[in-house]
Amino acid sequence: MIVVTDATHRYGSVEALRGVSLLVAPGQRVVILGTNGSGKSTLARLLNGSLLPSSGSVEVDGVSSSPETTRRLAELVGYVRQDPRNQIVSPVVSDEVAFGPRNLGLSRPDVLSRVDEALEVCGISHLRHHMTTELSGGQQQLLALAGVLAMRPRYLVLDEACSQLDEATRRRVRAIVRDCRERGVGVVEVAHFAEDVAGADRVLVLERGRLAWEGEPGGFFLSPGALSSSGLRDDPLSPVLSSLAASGCDLTEPLDEKDVVQRLGVSGAPSDRLTAPSPAADEADEAPAAHELCLRDASLSYGDTAALVRANLSATGVTLLLGASGSGKSTAARLLSGVLAPDDGSAELDGGRVRAGRIGLAFQRPEDQLFSDTVIDDIAYGPRMAGHGDEATRAEAIDAARRLGVGSDVLGRSPFELSGGQMRRVALAGVIAAGPSAYVFDEPTAGLDAPSRREVRELVSDLAAGGAPVVVITHDAAEWIDVARRVVFLAGGRVTGDLRASEVRANPAPFEAAGMLAPLMVRLRAAGRGGEADA
Amino acid sequence: MRSPVALGAYVPARTLVHAIDARAKLVLLVIATVASFASPAPVGLAVAAAGLVVALVASRTSPRAVLRGLRPAALLLAVSVLGNAVVLVGQPGISLAGLSRSVTVVLRVALVVGFALVFSSTTPQPAIADALAALMAPLSRVGVPVTSIAMSASIALRFIPITGEELHRIRSAQRARGARFDEGGVRERLAVWRQVLVPLVVALFRRSDELARAMTDRCYAGEQTTLLGPLPPRDRALVAVGVAWAVVCALF
Lengths: 535, 252
Prior knowledge:
With 535 residues, chain A is an alpha/beta fold.
């Protein structure tokens, strides 16, 4: 049992967590929700002893956290972070998994058998001799999970561990976690998505460091207060789950699409919850586009590996670029933005070759994109390089900061001191500051809470409404599909589909053709349509 | 995103050399280095070179990689060959004795580079660290923190590709926002590079902090179970063969 009693944590004089209590029993799954900066990660780190409470107490299976017990707590409570890249210690997969067990003072045969077991459980035994740097992001996260499971923790903390994963890998991680729970491992999950709440035993909502709501998932979706303080009111799936909860569905069980659709139909809940909206995006379909960003027969290889093969795509308005990890999405983004040049073919903006710096490129990880000493310098870098005068540069930077909601109090700080959400805003402000005529956004909402994700979607829609093509690369197709105009699917470096967004919103087929799993929202809509046809 | 394999970086494969225990390989590397310098030309040196050929074939390492490995030292080696061969004092001209002497030295350096490449491209960093720790184990009796040194070495090796990665991403980020690395005069280029190096150092410190935290989360406290089992008889035999070969090199 994890017992957190009235825990408070301060970073210097800043109170990140205040008077929070929490119980996690073996085999339970507890989901912690809250907007960016609400104290979720602080609470999570208290659980494995990597942070100590300033007051109150944390006790895991009778061991209370103190400077002397941090190692014991780390052994009892495994911790998986959002970004696998920074958790990997070793360049070889099997050795990476062995790292934890080797620290536990086990004998060599024990270490080796645990490595085998953990690789097996996570389904990556075939990768054991591979280099960790060769793995895709999804495989790296499975590896990080294997590295933690090899230590046989009694509890598992997943700190937004699924937020950078595609649908199929997410599903695998969920299945692995379910197996762990069946063996009695207690799971604490820090999450940002409505979908993560289903199947939880209990839900905690943090708001500005305090416990704002606690209860069962059903109650959560029926409580307007809990939905709004967790930020999940802005999640497109929330209304569906609210209707389900209202129809008396047990949300402590994992969701089953067929069942969901049936329930929504039977209970007389408005089935339009599942019908795709026909927003301005569809009307904009017909409107002439001001600019066009495209790839023509573009190919690129890294050494012997072909990353993109004769890819053709044309982006006007909001265009989604979807594909499993390793499908060539990020390579396409680099070509479209001119950071890399194709070996063959071309990347063009309005018929001319793209040049780095003319296309706004937002990186997958905001910290990968920031490099200046202060926030304002970073945002101003683009306009300054474009040769705008000092005054114009400053005005443009401040305007961009304002549009992204970057407070004037952070402009003088180092971008690396900021929270993930704020860092993302600064990075996006830096991209739009110079006013490029086309944009490429690689996973612009990863790690953001639901309200911030909505704001980014609105920003992208605004930029597109201004005539700029915006290519959005994302794992979270469900979130973007309703604001998109076109959807391009990539698999193995080839374009497998280039469709109007309206043709994709309720149709899992193009996802499957690209070797992906369609998002829950699309599957639900498809199942709903099937139901209508049956009736 | 994949990038071409850095020179000397571990290349996973299934060859005889990959399968040899890292300790045995490390000992063989030391023996080979001694042999490369101790063998008299031309016969001993030829035997030593034959050893390198065997190592390259058995590890499927391309001889071209050895040439690439020599490139950083190429200028130095060229100057040394010229310096030895060209006689300016007395009777100016080409000294054959000097030429053969310096070519011999270049060959010895090439041999050592070749052996080192075979070792590093067939042995993953953690195994190198383990092997170092194992061979230095006697020192732990006199209070030298051998395992910590080995782990530091391993992490330092791990940070070589990370540094390359960070450099690449900072340059991409700046290029994406209009920086030009390939234009302007020397001064402009230097200024652009300064803009890269400062964030690079900051980024590396940040990543090492995060790595340290991830290691603590996984209970790292300095002592680790070694993954090296007893040295297999085959590898003992190989070390013996290596010693015999070195003796032959040195005697001829």
